[in-house]
Amino acid sequence: MEQHLFQLLEAINKNANLNQKKLAEICGISIGKVNYLIHDLTFGDYIYSEKKGRNISYFLTQKGIDFLQSGIEAYHHKKVNIHQEPLTEIKQAVILAAGMRKDLNKPAGLMAIDETTLLKRNLDILQENGINDIVIVTGYKPETFAEYPEFNHLTFVENKKYKWTGSMASLAAAQPHIANDFLLIEDDILIEERAIKEILAHPQRDCVLITNESGSGDEAFVEIKNGYLHKISKDIHQFNHVDGEMIGISKLSYEVYTKMVSEYQQNNRNPLLHYEYMLLDISRHYNIGFLEIHNLIWGEIDSLQHYNIVTEKIYPMLKRKEAVFREIWIKSHLMEALNLAYDDIEDIQPFGGMTNKNFKVVIQGKEYVLRIPGNGTESLINRKEEKFNAALAGNLGIDTELVYFNEESGVKIAELIPEAETLTPKMAKRQDIMELTTANFRILHFSGLEMAGRFDVFEKIDEYERLMQEANALPYEHYEETKAHVMVLKEIYQGMDIALAPCHNDALPQNIVKSGADKLYLIDWEYSGMNDPMWDLAWHAMESDFSPEEEELFLTLYFQEDEVSLQIQQRMIMNKIFQDFLWTIWTVIKEAKGDDFGTYGTDLLARCRKNLEHDLIREMTYEYQK
Predict the structure, then answer these.
(1) What share of the chain has pLDDT > 70, as a percent?
(2) How far apart, in Å, do the first and last CA atoms of the chain sit?
(3) Matching CATH number, 2-75, of 3.100.10.20, 3.60.140.10, 1.10.10.10, 3.40.1440.10
(4) pTM (whole model) above 0.90
């Protein structure tokens, strides 16, 4: 009977979606006995079931996993599959940066690599792949990280005993900040970007990255058995055969990590233990997978000699190889979108962009712009609405027509604007440019068309604050008191009963392109939707740094009247305040995800606070509060 219990638990552990008939076939017992055993296992809290439609799925509880583990070797000499859940998306990374390397006077991750640092390069790769929650475990010279403002958004943990402990102590120190699966990286590793992409996509939730032996003399050799990790050692004499060399990058599930830390804290008597060997201990009971990538260009910086090898030999090779892969990656988007042959794409050039990656591409002699959305934009942008609104703008003649738009990925291809010249704030101040700009706004705002989505600034503030909390980002100083004043204005503004119109909602000069002498295009409709038309005018006026006189001229050109009404003036200054407050939060979110905007966010908040002192705002607030 006990053997059948183990057989049944093992079958459920491998596939939760098997029905009782299939379980009976696998275990070689009757359906009636399966039903009886499932009843006993459920009553004993070894398994639980979930009904989805007509199907029932069975899952092991922790008690069931522990019971299976205790007897599995005796019956099958196999290991437990600790996971029944599918592969989860990795959103967090832990970088071990506590160790002191000989000949180096700073942590290895802070060594210079091609006008940046090794750590910043690795952070950029992680963020390119959607990992923004990053924990750095320091030890040696932790204060040096504070000298790099680009690391301010990271979570730092210090292993104060780094001199007398191995890497497992550093990994355990990160536990208060770990709640899900994560990527583990050693800070001295330089590696191809594709290695990160491939291990993140690998179907096993626990796996180590291995490659062919480097011959460095400090290899951690790996032996694989039955498709899983079997042995790790730097002593090659311990191996019957060597399957590869372990690189300092692994993907760990929360469950396996928790068991590693628990085992280390409760039973370990060797403070010098490294995490690889703790993982090996865990692998005696649980399946730990592997990803093997051959011909991988990589290196580690353990000494000044290693650093010279990395910078003079390894990195130049890696850079050339990555450039080829990047070109292939960009061309693959174009080939898939437009059904092209590889050789149809004749040239690719970077084309700027504050949030997205834009490229000027030449296809069969014709020029296009390819946009690939930047990291984190999927939570801020509704691509389906953007596609609809961009097509509407194209039909109105105020943007070029779309060639291709993928609603899922946000990849967009449009014809390149001829004689394209992006506006600058200085250009936007010219009267001839103002006339073209206001003409485009009038076409859009007075079209009578209904755009997809509504851009409600107050709903956006709530949404962005939620995203700010999810990113564990801290708002700037004076944020809360500024918000209190903004919320008072919200009540006044919503009482104005303003008619909404189709709006661009991000009409800074950089999103307006001049073509020839007398044509302007509004581009990038990511934030477009129904809104108060004064939003577009206020944002453009602020970002163009109009003087009061220039703003007055701009408004008279737009309204085609000599004077601007008091209510329009009020709506302009209120929209300026709302915009600066909203984009302040946007900047905080983007910086938490690794972007660096310098003083942009704090400047917005300062301007917002200054406008709250405007005479019109004081008068409106006074009247409202009487």
Answers:
(1) 93
(2) 82
(3) 1.10.10.10
(4) no
